[in-house]
Amino acid sequence: MASRQMAHLLALAMAIMLVVLLVLNYTMHSQIEASGTKLNPGPSLSTQQDAMLRERAMNLLKKQEDTILALTEELQEVRREQASSIKLASPQPSHLQPEVTNLKLKELEELRKSVTQLESQLQDARSSASRAPPPSAPAPASVSAPISSYQMTASEKDCDDKFGGGLVRSWMSSPTEVCSGGTSKMTCYSHKHFFNSAKQWFCVAENFVIDFSKVKGEHSNKKPSRGAAQYHSFERGSLSADCSKTGSYKQVQFMHHHGLQMNTFVDESSGDHDEVEGGVTYLLARDEDSENAFHSTADFLNMHTVYTALELPTSTSVVLFDKQPDGPFYDMIETVFSSKNLRRKADFQGRVKFSKLVFHMESPASIIFQKVGGQKKALECTSSSLWKGYAARVLQAYDLYDVPPPPVPTATLILRNRTPEKNVGRVLKNAGEVEAAMRRCDLCDVRVVDLATMSYREQIALVRSSSILVGVHGAGLMNIIFAAQEAVLLEIHPHYRLDRHFRIASRLAGKAYMPMRTRTQVTCHGTSDDVHVEVEEFGRAFDGAVRLARNFDDGQVECGVACPAEVLAIDGNHDAEFKRLGVKKGNAASTRFPCG
Question: How far is Cα 514 from Cα 490, in angstroms, rounded to an integer?
Fold first, then answer.
């Protein structure tokens, strides 16, 4: 006990020394400035710095005062305990023998004297601080506070709580053990949605056994029907462990696919298993629309949240634990989230003991949905560390993170096309006219693509090199989060759509958002529709996007779609682009001040 107290006091002494130095430094500067003497070398402290130093010193003094009070109370308690130990009847353990106890009391008495000395030093420091003259005037508004003193506004804090680090802390703040007491355990984490107060959960298990002979259902290349058919089914004992269900077990509302398996969980284990899977294994049960970029992002953003919250290692492996086809994002999951090739149920046989299992935070819990984070707050927020962190995770995995934006406006028009397999809606009816309006842009690079015909790796490389993304409301616009730094999303809303999914994605990923709404009634094509865009209105919106894009990074051209040659020529960094795009460079307009 004495050695622990001595460690506390040593730390305390060092802290008080720092306080004294801060106070002396502050007092010295105040006295020198009061006498009119200039400090040499170097400038004197600003009024704002004086105030900050004084505040820091007083705060530290208060903390040390509280610490001494706590230490004194603890010393008194120890002395009472030792005194009562002397009165114990013989025989006594050696550490309670009177001579040993008296020795410890002597040590504690020395510690008490040290506390008294420190209190005296503390009082001297406080007296010095109180004698220091107050700042002569408040800091001028133009003086910037150090970065470390910046505090988020109430609105920024609210946004962080809902879409950033605060949300991660909320998930991790109340761990609930649902099975414990043996060599296995399961801990679940919950978060109450801000919008509808519904709770969602994800869980982590250690030394749990999955009996794959009791996990039923195989995946195929055909999308299963909605409902229970898209998930595996489980027989009793498909999941077992050497632990006992706690009183909290029934309080946890396991997410849908996880809940199906937990219904067959047996909290007893014979200890036998056919193999052991070491490391961390992530069981991913995907959204029913796993082929859709928007719905898949719900899963992937949740995975990023869980990986961040649990600080999962790069060695984590992923198991696709559903009956969905591999789909267009198979390569992305494997590249971004898994250290091994993706595996399925069929890759395991018999009873497998997993050192650590993470059960997916399923898509309904994702902040991608307006009903989860709340549409109003999402529309107010302009940044999210989770959205940006997820985008960075993906881009880094594909070696596309540290990529400068394109030197000239590079616009990508995303089209949606029907296939024999899928009667997609919101098809751009006058795509040719829209493309022609875009190609009228001076010194711009325009691409027209159908992302459905490209691999994920090709898609993300294309989008990353785009500074303007254009398209009718649809899942492909979710790629805006991977676009070039400062990119603009120009979203065409059919007259009947009010969704704000991609406005939220753009803003929270730090991109610009520019919407337009069509007025012409859509043309029906069975259960889907064709969208006609008023080209004149589109031209105005596109012009605004181009004006922004011309000034990304170190751009110096102030014009839109139609840009005079002499203005384009002002930016000397575009010589290579003139040649690449086959545009003749004019003589740059004069930028010299003509007067005087």
Answer: 5
Q: Please report the pLDDT score of residue 105 as a whole number.
A: 53
Measured CA to CA, the distance from residue 32 to residue 71 in angstroms comes to: 38
When pLDDT is cut at 50, 70 and 90, the band that residue 159 belongs to is confident
Residue 88's identity, in one-letter code, is L
3-state SS string for 297-324: HHHHHHHHHHHHHHCCCCCCEEEECCCC
Cis ω on the peptide bond leading into residue 140 (within 30° of 0)? no
Assigned token pair, 365: 């819990």
When pLDDT is averaged across residues 1-24 and rounded to a whole number, the result is: 52
pLDDT, tens only, 108-152: 566 556 655 655 555 555 555 444 444 444 444 444 445 556 788
Residue 312, CB-side half-sphere exposure with 13 Å CA sphere: 26
In this prediction, residue 120 carries a pLDDT of: 58
Distance CA 179, CA 173 (A): 18
Query: How many whole angstroms separate alpha carbon 176 and alpha carbon 169?
Result: 15
Residues 574/554, Cβ–Cβ less than 8 Å = no
405 Cα distance to chain centroid: 23
Q: Which of 500, 561, 492 is nearest to 533 (CA)?
A: 492
Q: Which helix (H) or strand (E) holds 131?
A: helix 98-131
- pLDDT per residue as tens digits for the range 225-254: 887 778 899 999 999 999 999 999 988 889
pTM: 0.74
Distance separating alpha carbons of residues 320 and 334, to the nearest angstrom = 10
Q: Is-contact 396 238, C-beta < 8 A?
A: no
Alpha-carbon distance of 174 to 591, in angstroms, equals: 61
Q: Please tell me whether residue 25 adopts helix, strand or coil conformation.
A: helix
Cβ neighbours of residue 463 under 8 Å, at least 6 residues apart?
Answer: 412, 469, 479, 480, 482, 483
Phi, psi of 290 (to 5 degrees): -70, -10
Query: Using CA atoms, how far apart are residues 537 and 490, in angstroms rounded to an integer?
Result: 12
Q: How far apart are the first and last CA of the chain?
A: 81
Q: Which two tokens stand for residue 448?
A: 């027209």
Please tell me whether residue 387 adopts helix, strand or coil conformation.
helix
d(CA 403, CA 568) in angstroms, rounded, equals 24
3-state secondary structure of 270: coil
The residues, any chain, with a CB within 8 Å of residue 139's CB and separated by 6 or more, are: 46, 47, 48, 51
Helix, strand, coil % in the chain, rounded to nearest 5: 45, 15, 40
Query: Which are the contacts of 227, defined by CB distance < 8 A and separation ≥ 6?
Result: none
- Helices 293-310/385-397 angle, 10° precision: 100
Q: 468 - beta bridge partners?
A: 411, 488
Instruction: Say how far apart CA 437 and CA 431 lie, in whole Å.
Output: 10
Is the Cβ–Cβ distance between 336 and 356 less than 8 Å? no
- Which helix (H) or strand (E) segment holds residue 352: the answer is strand 351-359
pLDDT tens digits, 561-591:
999 999 999 888 888 999 999 999 999 999 8
Which residue, among 571, 580, 576, 524, has the nearest Cα to 552 in the 3D structure?
A: 571
Cα distances from 165 to residues 158, 162, 172, 188, 388, in angstroms, run 11, 8, 11, 19, 11
